[in-house]
Structures are given as C-alpha cells and as structure tokens.
Amino acid sequence: MAVDERDQDRMWEAFAAVERVGDEPALVVDVDGFEGPLDLLLALARTQKVDLARISILALAEQYLAYIERIRGLRLELAADYLVMAAWLAYLKSRLLLPEAADDSEPSGEELAAALAFRLRRLEAMREAAARLANRNRLGRDVFARGWPEPVEVTRVSRYTATLYDLLSAYAARRQERAIAVIHVRPRAVWSLQDAHRALARVIGRIAEWTPLATLLAAYLTPPEMQRSVTASTFGASLELAREGLIELSQSAPFTPLYVRDRQPVARRAPEAGNG
Amino acid sequence: MANANAAIAIAVDNDAVAGDRSMEDRRQSRRMVEALLFASAAPLAADEIAARLPPGTDIAGLLRELQGLYADRGVNLVQVAGKWSFRTAGDLSFLLAREAVEQRRLSRPALETLAIIAYHQPVTRAEIEEIRGVTTSRGTLDVLLEAGWIRMRGRRRVPGRPVTYGTTEAFLSHFGLDSVSDLPGVDELKAAGLLDSRVPADFAIPEPGGGDQLAPDEDPLDGDDGSQTTEDR
Amino acid sequence: MANANAAIAIAVDNDAVAGDRSMEDRRQSRRMVEALLFASAAPLAADEIAARLPPGTDIAGLLRELQGLYADRGVNLVQVAGKWSFRTAGDLSFLLAREAVEQRRLSRPALETLAIIAYHQPVTRAEIEEIRGVTTSRGTLDVLLEAGWIRMRGRRRVPGRPVTYGTTEAFLSHFGLDSVSDLPGVDELKAAGLLDSRVPADFAIPEPGGGDQLAPDEDPLDGDDGSQTTEDR
C-alpha cells in the first residue's frame, strides 16, 4: 500500500501546485507529476484499493471527471490529452449507464470499459516489470566481472601469396623494360678536341725528349671504347699546338708512331727530325 | 592358466591407466575452461571456448561442473546472453559498492520504456506510446540506444514501415539475463495476455521474439538505416 | 542427574552452534576476499583487503586458504610485490595467445626480386640490383627470406665475397614447380604474351641452375652466416 500512498502524495502535490497559482489567469497545466491521462487514471484507480482486475471503471471515470472538473474550476487550462480522455470517459460513462442500443456495429460500453481496464493493467504490469528489472543485480553496480582481465595477445603472422603468373609477368616486364632501356639510353663516350687540347697543354714544358704521343695519353686511353675518340682528338690537338709553335712533332713514316717534344730553341733543332 | 591370468592383469592395468589419463585430461580441460573464462572480462560463448580446447572436449559438461564448483563461492559462473561469465556473487554487492562505476540513473520514463521494449519486442515507438499512454520524447529512446541496451531491429510490415526496437546482448549481460525469456515474470505476464500489444487480450499471444530473427511482420532495416548513428549501439 | 545431563547437553549445543557460526563466518569472509580480489582492477595488499572486511578478520589465513584452493586450478592466487591477485596458471598462458594469419600479396619489387633469384640463381644482391636497375630495399629480401622462398646459398668467390641467393623447396611447392628448370624460357614467355616480340635478338634469360651444389665460383657460407639473417643487406 506504500505505492498507493505515494500516488496519493503525488495527487496532493498536483493539487497543491494548482492551488498555488490561485486566482491567476488560466494557464496550461500538465497535471504535475503525472505522465499523461493514463498515468493519472492508474493513480486514481489505486485509490479504490482493490485489485485492478476488479476495479469499477464507472467509478474510475467519475473520479477522473471530478478531478478534472476541480482543476478546471480553478480556471486552469489542462493539457489537451487530459481533456480528450475526459471527453472519452464521459462518453464511456453514458454508454455504461444507458441501456445498450441494438446496434452492434459499435463496441458495447462493457467492451470499452474492459479495454480501458486492460490498458491500465498492462501499464501497471510494465511499471512493475521496470521496477523488477531495475532491482536486479546489475553488472557494474551489484555484480562485477573480472576487474583485471588478461587479454588474449594476438600475434600477427604474415603468410605471403603470389601466383606463378604474377612471378613470371613481373620478371618478363622488368627484363624487357631494361633490355629496351639499355639500347636507347646508353651514352656514347666521346673525348672532344678541347679535352685533348687541355690535356696536352698540361704536359708542355715537361717533354724535352721525343716521346710517343700514345704514351702521353695512356691515362685517357683506358676505356677501350674511347680509344678511337682519344686518338683522333689528340692528333688534332697536337697539330694545333704545333701550329701555335708550342711543340714539335715527328713521324718517321706513315702509320708509324708519332713523336712529340717541347719546341726546341732553333740552334738545338735535331737534324734527324726530317718531317717537322 | 598363469598366462591367462597375467593377460587379464595387464588388461586391467591398461584400463586403470586409461581411466587415470582421461580423468587427468578432464581435469586439465576444466582448468583451461576456467582460465579462459577468468581471463576474459566479457562473457564467452561455449563455442568460443570450444575453439580454444582440444576437439571433442565436453564443454557443456565442464561448464556445468565449474558452475557447481563455484556455486557458493564469492565468484559465480553465470550464464548471460547465452554466454558464460564469472561474476561476483550477487549477495556481496554491499562489499563491492566502492568498485561500482558511476552509472547514469535512468529516468522513470526511460526505465519504463526499456521494460516495454524488453517484454514486448519487437515493438514500434507508436506501440510503446500506446502502452504508456504518452508520447515518447526523442531523448528517451536516444538514452537507451546510447547505453547500448536497445537497438533498431527492423521495420514493421505496415503502412509507414515503422522501425521496430528490441534489446541487445549488452542489455542481457547488464541485467544478468541469459535470454529475454528469462525476464522476471515474463511467463505470468504472457499468460495474463498483458504482453499483447492490442486490446482486447483474449486471443493468441505472439511469442516475444528476443532473438535476432525478424518477426513474421518485420522487415530488415534498409541499407541506409545502417549508417544512422543511432543504430545498434 | 537428569538435569545435569540436560545442562551438559545444552552447553555442548551452544558450542556446536558457535562453532558452526564461526565456520560460516569464516566461509563468508573467504567469499568476500575472493570477490574483492576478483573484481579489483589491480593487485590488492592484505591491509587493503582488511579495510573492507569486518575488523579482526584473519586476512592472512584466508589468503593462504584461497591460495591453496586455487593452487592446481586454471587460475592461481599469486602474490607479487606484496600484493595479491588472481592470474592465469603459468602452464596455461598459451591459451591467452593467438596467432592471426594474414594473407599478404607480395609487392611488385619483391615479386621481381624473387623471379630474378629464381632465374639467375646463384645471384648476389648487386647482381639483382644490376638486373632490376634499381637498388633493392632491405625489406624486400627480408620478406622473401621470411616467406621461406629464398635462402642464402653461399658466397661468390670475388672480392668482398658477397652472399649468393637461391630459391628453396618451399618456393617450388608454393609455385607448383618440380624444379627451377621448369621455369619457362624466352620462347615460352613470348608465346604466353609476357614478353614482347620486339625484344632485342640478343635478349636471353638464363637457364636456372637451382641445384644444391655450389657453383664453381661459389664458396659455402661460413659457419656463422646461417644464423645471420641480416647478412649482406
């Protein structure tokens, strides 16, 4: 019966709230503490102090209408759904009091009353269920899981996959790309006339005796593919330096080695150097 | 004759050894189940446990054995949401109050809505409102979705295709229930016809479908429902 | 006489009741210690436990009792740095480790490197780079070694004695080859459309010699090479 008392308290509070506003102009009141007309009906039903299954719906309707009247008498405006319920209950009351019409297309007053009683019982059942649920031993409030769990450590192992096709196409593509690239990109090694001129100029003054031109250039002749380029450029450069009067050249016969030495003072010109 | 006796003796010995070994195997398997459940903060399904033990292990039997072993201890083995978990005994909650994590108190409307969803699932918002006799404020369902206790299950196959709500595994785990058929008083309520969403009550009551299967009049959520942040949290 | 007997009987009963109650108290205290240790997020010192139990409780005794109870179970009560906690039994730690196998595709550089090793073996890293025209990253050979598809065969008998690589049995079985000599030649690659018919006339691919015998210019690995997977990288 504690529940009933609590509900009555709420009703009293509702009235108190209403009365506090006194003679103020009408204002909308969501009947304090009640969650809609069904909740209010349920609270009123509990004041009958009988099992909800045996409640008098007629008496309940009258209680509700009287309650609403009292609030309206205080010149307060009620939320619309309370008024809708009041209108419906007034209709229900009339259906219950008047003899049943022969017309059975509409539900009888008894059926309407039963439907309302069912809704009240169902709401009450859900309220009780909610309370039982809330009072269960709840995880993290009443019962506890392991406070210091030991997690499963997952080690990731990579398993690589590839198909033979992947392998072969990767190989073929790379080899092919390289094969073609080598043909087009490889630069030709060239030793220019300027390179040769600069190289020879550096040794002038240090070749007093006849020296084969080829040995002077040994340092530059190492890459075999550059031999022809170096020989040609050096020959050209030596002719130029001879013309400039810096060196002397000597060759005993065509295709024999070419000798080179620093330009000698006129007196010391060697008689054997025939082809100057 | 002496030979025959010796043969029998050997046979008996072998049996004894085999028996010892299988006893020892069982004890070892039970230790493994115990260790797995103890180590995990979350409930484990029997098949999750089975996957970590030698094939053919009698998991169900070992779980029952452990449950018995821990029945009057400070820690119990309980079945929640169809899974198994060690939890402190309910009667010791007074002792562990300090351990409790601050939980947001559910408002009365939220708790009532949760109960209606639990007992009536799958249920639409309109049906919840019909039962409570008031409109449900947007926040009420949000709070429950956010807590991870309810989820959108599907859509009712009626005009407007309203979303249906149901409870989650986290709900069962939090309230220590093995399944929705273990909700307190659910059988009595069902028998009294109070779990029927329609008035009046005197016709066959559909089985409250707490499972993941959709009800006959329920459609799966559309693809784009899945991206809604409020879904299934 | 009858009275005296009755008095004695009563005295005995009182003792028995007291004994039962203290037994029951002790069992209850043990349950409390058990639950506290289970729910705690960190190991607990004996005095932390004592602070939560009725004054005068024999914490040390209860801890020893619990330790004995759990001694040959899947979970043990252990004392670390003076504090107590439940931990998985050491011999069951394997239960808490799991291998997750990830299937991964080989990267393009790894595929190229593997193919070059297959065709050109025994081949050094410098030679692989020469053929690919790019430097080979440290990870590429690692991945292939880890996959078990290549191995270090020996050392080339040239200055610097670089390590030579070759393929393994696992390579053959993964790619469904009987031997590396089954790898297709130029004509077959052309027929399969993998090689362009415009490749220069002198384009050749080696006939792989994958035997386990060392090549004439190859030395065996030194004793300590085998363990050094990072060799030559």
Q: How would you portray this structure in words?
A:
Helices cover 53% and strands 8% of the residues of chain A. Chain A is mainly alpha-helical. In chain A, the strands form 2 sheets. A 3-stranded antiparallel beta sheet of chain A has the order 4-6-5. Chain B starts with a helix and ends in a 13-residue tail after the last strand. Chain B is 41% helix and 12% strand. In chain B, the strands form 2 sheets. In chain B, strands 3-5-4-6 form a 4-stranded antiparallel beta sheet. Chain B is α+β, with helices and mostly antiparallel strands and 233 residues long. The A-C interface holds A 144-148, 150-164, 166-181, 183 and C 35, 38-43, 85-88, 96-106, 108, 111-112, 114-116, 118-119, 131-133, 143, 146-147, 149, 174-177, 183-184, 189, 192, 194-196, 198-200, 203, 205.
- How does the overall form of chain B come out from the CA principal axes? elongated
As laid out across the biggest beta sheet of chain B, the strand order is: 3-5-4-6
Overall mean pLDDT of chain B:
82
User: How far do the termini of chain B sit from each other?
Assistant: 76 Å
Number of helices of chain B: 8
Number of strands of chain B: 6
- Taken as a percent bin, the fraction of beta residues of chain B is 5-15%
Q: Within the largest sheet of chain A, what's the order of strands?
A: 4-6-5
